[in-house]
Amino acid sequence: MSDPSEALASAKAAADRISKAKRLNACLTPIKDLRKSLVAQAQAAHPSGVLYGMPVAVKDNICTLEFTTTCGSKILGGYHSPYEASACAKLKAAGALIAGKTNCDEFGMGSSTEHSAYGRSLHPFDKTRVPGGSSGGSAALVAAGAVPAALGSETGGSVRQPASLCGVVGIKPTYGRVSRYGLVAFGSSLDQIGVLGRSVHDAARVLSVISGRDPRDSTCEDRDSLRLPTVPESLQGFVIGIPKEYFPTDLDPAVRRACDRAIRLLKELGAAVREVSLPHTAYAIATYYIVAPAEASSNLARYDGARYGPRFNGSEDVRALYRTTRGEGFGAEVRRRVMLGTYVLSSGYYDAYYRKAQQMRALIAQDFRNVFDRGVDLLFTPTTPTPAFKAGEKLDDPVSMYLSDIFTVTANLAGLPAISIPIGRVKGLPLGGQIVGQAFLEDEMLEAAYALERVVPALEEA
Amino acid sequence: MSVTHDEVRKIARLAELDVAEEALPVLAEQMSRILEYVAQINAVPASEGVKPFIPGPDAVRFRPDEVKPSGLAFGPAELAPAFKDGFFLVPKLGAFEEPEL
Fold first, then answer.
1. ipTM of the assembly?
2. Structural domain boundaries of chain B?
3. pLDDT at position B64
4. Among candidate residues A383, A386, A364, the one with its CA nearest the CA of residue A449
């Protein structure tokens, strides 16, 4: 596309499709504002850009100049950022259109998009179920066909898990591959911007555009943007490891069937498949739920009602202002995690929890290095232990909710790239398979994903 | 691992969060369950020799120390709940001495 009239038509069509998907509560931007902005963006877009006219929705914890950035939280209600994320600036420079802000669990803390101050998002195929989270709005919007791709963010699986539950592709890049300038911080040693797309190609080309060096983010590696691989004819020469810890005896039978089928297809494509072990996997969720809340309790200290966002009473003195603003502005899950983080960092508990978790994280990362050092190129696992669950099912049981990320958190802890692609269905609900790559070798991971996507019967029952 | 109501109150104060008294039982019960779950990492033998894993560049890259415009589309006056003459306005400071936590 390079014709301005086509970009304008694309903008208007995207606004219509997002409007039709309104029942999902996936897009937080009022449709009137969205339509107006999309038209203006299409008129100003760069026709020579590789994403010219492509509408890309953006998770509401990524700063944009066009729309508010609330992080799904009351404490940032109505917040307009005075700057935009580098990822959004790169999208616009490539001619893409920012197609509104998507609903999410508050500050990215959740696995169901039920923890949003703006109401839960619905699963596009079954409104009684969740779309996953925390990038559930982005996943639902892509799955509903409203946009070809959307930005999400990951701290423990928040792109791949909703992608798996909604039947779309979700990519978490290597830590340091994409600038986080303008991504509202949750767990700084884990956070990454990721991409959801209706196909590997759509997601990968958006990732390619937003990747690469950025002097505004010192954690972003000084590397060129990702070069996209071509679709391979076969996977001859690839060694794919199947970590046995990701296939426990009590794994959902449909998930196992879908994975077995995908593994068979990987072999038929020419890959050498071998069982491997990542022995510290069992401790990943426990490690994550110490490290991430500890970092969150520090990162979220800035929300105090003094500098930005609404102020909630507490005029008695400045501490009362902080406490009432934070007490009323944060939702239940954020309060719980901030308190958990404060607890594990507090005097007397630091060594038993935080220090120990840092050591566990190192052992988990070492597990991956050991496997890759023995000639394995990629790993294949289920993305989620079950298909989409019912809304409300896990709300009162935080540990049960946390366990829905059991197969995704390890890549975040180890800083590795990973992708979820649809590999089948159970009773009409999508299931995802995950390919984990080596740091900064997203091209190999994408090659395998391209090849598998082409042959896997993603819409068939497993 | 059992977290008491008093411990929840103490953590809430450290975290600068108002927590309603009626919310304490549920919070204490949920935090106890979460802490009991995460404590399983202590079952792994002590690993004192293990260096913490920190992803990202090996060294922090420094930028030239130059004064540049902020690049913000608008200033803090438009963001802050209360702002005057270049200052954020907040209520008076309370007592510095807080009761023993």
1. 0.92
2. 5-43
3. 85
4. A383
